[in-house]
Amino acid sequence: MADFRKLGVQSVPSGPPLITASSNSANTEDLSGAVRRAMRHVGATVTIITTRTDQPFGMVATAVMSLSLEPPSLVVAINDSASICKPLLQRGAFCVNILSGDDEGVSRRFTQLSGPDRFTAGSWDWFGEGGYNGIPFLASAQVSLFCEVGKSLKTGSHQLIVGRIQQLIDRKTDDPLLYCDGAYGGFRANSAGAAAQLDDRLFVCN
Question: Which of 4, 130, 151, 197 gives a 20 to 30 Å CA spacing to 80?
Answer without folding.
Answer: 130
